[in-house]
Amino acid sequence: MSKMRRSERIVRLTQILLEQPHRVLSLTEMADKLSSAKSSLSEDLAIIREVMEAEGLGTLETQAGAAGGVRYVPGYRRDLGLRFIEGISETLTDGDRILPGGFLYMSDVLGLPEVLDTAGKLFASRFRESGADYVVTVETKGIPLAVATARFLNVPMVVVRRDHKVTEGSAVSINYVSGSRRIQTMSLSRRSLPQGTKVLLIDDFMKAGGTSKAVIDLMHEFHVDVVGIGVFIDTAEPQNKIVKEYLSLATLQEVDEETRQVKVVPGTYFEEDASEGGR
């Protein structure tokens, strides 16, 4: 094999890192794969790290030791994230999106790969130190968002079902009161989560927080800890949510079904004093 040019090697390295976030990659193995000296790779990785941090794409973390290694930690600059959410908010202010009960039609927005990709990076960036072993969501609209977040955290994703499926095997089910004051059921296969693990709850929408609280209660049945909650959009009312600590990317501040007026603003994610979003 002919010697790889440095520019080509940097492109290959960047591709490898982006495809495997949060995974420690051996410098020795990458050096063999790219037919390069580890010293050359170290210089290339320093360049990649500098560009990533400057562009708000995350950073590279090195691991000391005989084998040595590096991992890509996804990130997203706050100013870029805020600009992204402001654009989404403008899209969602269309009065034709108003649904009965003060809800908004968002399925088309949450079906856009670039929206899911950016939202996943934002959540992964904020919750990267949470220690989450799994991302959990409730079917159905939150699934793509949870998949995107799980990808950038490099952890498995688990779906809580509204109805028990026979293909799930033995399951734990609970009843809860939704934000619309209806009694609903959710269930999860007993094989889904090992005891003692930590999960990050990701959902598309939060009104009163009843669904999130139900997921927390369900996780208690599995002896699993919810270390963070992230939602794509929450509502300004009611102000006192059942769940107190969570991060939202956007907030539905006002919906007037009569005048067809909608106001959406950046969510708690962008508050200066926003916490890590833990429970």
From TrEMBL:
A Pfam entry, by short name: Pribosyltran
Entry keyword set: DNA-binding, Transcription, Transcription regulation
Family annotation (CDD domains): PRTases_typeI (cd06223)
Domain named Phosphoribosyltransferase: residues: 112-262
Domain of life of the native organism: Bacteria
Residues in Bacterial purine repressor N-terminal domain copies: 5-74
Cleavable signal peptide: none
InterPro entries: PRTase-like (IPR029057), PRTase_dom (IPR000836), Pur/Pyrimidine_PRTase (IPR050118), PuR_N (IPR015265), PurR_Bsub (IPR010078), WH-like_DNA-bd_sf (IPR036388), WH_DNA-bd_sf (IPR036390)
Assembly information from the UniProt record: Homodimer.
Family listed: Belongs to the purine/pyrimidine phosphoribosyltransferase family. PurR subfamily.
Protein name as it appears in the record: Pur operon repressor
Lineage of producing organism: Bacteria, Bacillati, Bacillota, Bacilli, Bacillales
